[in-house]
Amino acid sequence: MTGTADSPDDRVFQRVIDWVQHGIAVGELNPGDRLPSERELVDKFGIGRASIREALRVLENMELIRSQPRDPRGPLVLPVSVGPMRRSIAMLTSTGGLGLADLVQFRMIADASANLLAAARRSDEQLLGLERNTARMRECMNLGYAEFSQADMEFHELVAEAGGNKLVQVYGDVTREAVLRLIRRTILDAADQTALMLQSVRHHRAVFAAIADQDGLRASRLARESLYSYYADHVSPADRAIMADLVRECGGTVSS
């Protein structure tokens, strides 16, 4: 079925989407640039206005552009965002497409790598930021788990930033958020949240010390040992065995 002026045709509006994605990927379209106006896009691609508007709607949902109908300046190209990835991971976890074991095993790899990179690349200023964060985590224990959890997340963000690998930063962030969504109820219902928070503080101070000493292997091992300790009891025996192997791979130990 061919699209008309009033109904978009996905076989043609995909051409517009592909053109914009390619332009961004190769640097022909940069944040702050403007796409041609709707009228110009109609002429450029030789397709109906409905198909152009559908393509722009999809691109907006992908957070690649911001578009306003009849804007003579054309849609605005936005900085590439991780928002769509966050939503995809959230949808996969909420529908069962990604389970806790999948996410934790990935985190064991990503967080260990982030710690190793941070130990090698951190600056004195970044180290000071980590030290301040660990102090804030301790202070947040008196404010409740929500505040404490936010400080915990910020620690990992600071570590990933110090490591300097953008891919590790992005995927680490989205998987940490997904794990917390899945496990939050269990944490909130825990009999002794204070003990859990103290355990986390001790772990983060140990990671901080390893990064300060530029001991990447120790920092990496600590990430895997800690994640195993937190989550091994919440996954199947088969997944627990894989997690244990990930710990042993970097010279760590697991409790029996």
Automatic annotation (TrEMBL):
What domain of life is recorded for the organism? Bacteria
Show the GO MF annotations.
DNA binding; DNA-binding transcription factor activity
Q: Does the keyword GTP-binding apply?
A: no
Residue span, HTH gntR-type domain: 10-80
Family annotation (PROSITE patterns): HTH_GNTR
KW tRNA processing (keyword) present: no
User: What Gene3D superfamilies is this protein classified in?
Assistant: GntR ligand-binding domain-like (1.20.120.530), Winged helix-like DNA-binding domain superfamily/Winged helix DNA-binding domain (1.10.10.10)
Q: Which UniProt keywords apply?
A: DNA-binding, Transcription, Transcription regulation
Record's protein name: DNA-binding FadR family transcriptional regulator
Q: Which organism is it from?
A: Prauserella isguenensis
